[in-house]
Amino acid sequence: xxxxxxxxxxxxxxxxxxxxxxxxxHNYKLLIEAFAKKGxxxxxxxxxxxxxxxxxxxxxxKWFRQFFTDNVKNMDYNPVKARDGQEICPAPLLLRSPKTSxxxxxxxxxxxxxxxxxxxxxxxxxxxxxxxxxMFCPLLQKRQGKKQRRPEKEPLWWRL
Length: 160
Hints:
By secondary structure, the chain is mostly helical. It is built from eight helices and no strands. GO terms for molecular function: microtubule binding.
């Protein structure tokens, strides 16, 4: 959003190290305020997004990609400078089903925990959308272009 409309988001208020729901909610609030400043009437299902709902995150990501494509005017943007050099911490993977947990446990070594595993683009916090959305565009382009063929031998990530 800051790339599209510089100054629409106070980047000093964005919690780039967000790991908890209340921090994600705070960042979504900043995004919603930026939308309001620009007269964008988009319902943002914050509750579903922070809970990691695949469908909600995917729908919102597709909408934002189209919104970004329609509004980008300048391809020159330095996200590191925009966030004043702060690191981005990926959102933790949200495990919801015992089946998924069992599969993850079988591939993780004993020193790791599920909280160290990170999510895909679809359960990211809004800080990634605010400061670095473009990095997910190729993923969507690839998926929209053609039907994905399942590999002969399924890798673990395919079943997650």
